[in-house]
């Protein structure tokens, strides 16, 4: 779009110029703050991405270890170990809770695990492979910890991705639309005010010239009236015509003589 189409439709006055300048200052500050926010979110986004990659790489080994531990426990304790474990479990000892972490004004959900109460099934399968059952339990606890951490990272990753897109859209809008439009509006108002100032100056010059000509005309009329009065007096005193009186006065003025009535 051209510069004319990017400016605001405003009345070019000094008051509007001050308002638009204030809006430009606010847009500039907002652009700087949003740019800093975008940079901070991008740094956090990259850190989370690295953690996700490393967590997923370790998750494969941990899940493989836990599955192998379950197979060993079933081999030692028998296939009916599931029923024995369920009979000895009353409440979950490993739970997950959520909280929020503020990063540059963006609230990121965080999941964390915690243990509640004592484990009451330590003797599960003591007669037949109790130690292997406990090893299987420890392996799956570690797998749950990794899964919880990965879920927290993935959720934060998606939230940050959306926040960065929104912030970048605002930054681009301020940089490419709002600020140029306000700057073009300020240039337009300044140009119009300068044009009005030139028009006022030209108008004042014309008025001064008219007044000067009017004063000169009035002075000429007053001088002509005075000359007519003097010529009339000379005509009456000397008994000559008005034209002759004018000629007489002209000759007297050339000779710089005083006229005595």
UniProtKB/TrEMBL annotation:
Ion transport keyword on record: yes
Report the superkingdom from the record: Eukaryota
Q: By its UniProt entry, which Pfam families does this protein fall under?
A: ATP-synt_D (PF01813)
Gene3D superfamilies according to UniProt: 1.10.287.3240
Keywords from the UniProt entry = Ion transport, Transport
- InterPro entries in UniProt: V_ATPase_D (IPR002699)
Q: Name one GO molecular function term.
A: proton-transporting ATPase activity, rotational mechanism
> NCBIfam families annotated for this entry?
V_ATPase_subD (TIGR00309)
Q: Which PANTHER family match?
A: V-TYPE ATP SYNTHASE SUBUNIT D (PTHR11671)
Recorded family membership: Belongs to the V-ATPase D subunit family.
Q: Name it.
A: V-type proton ATPase subunit D
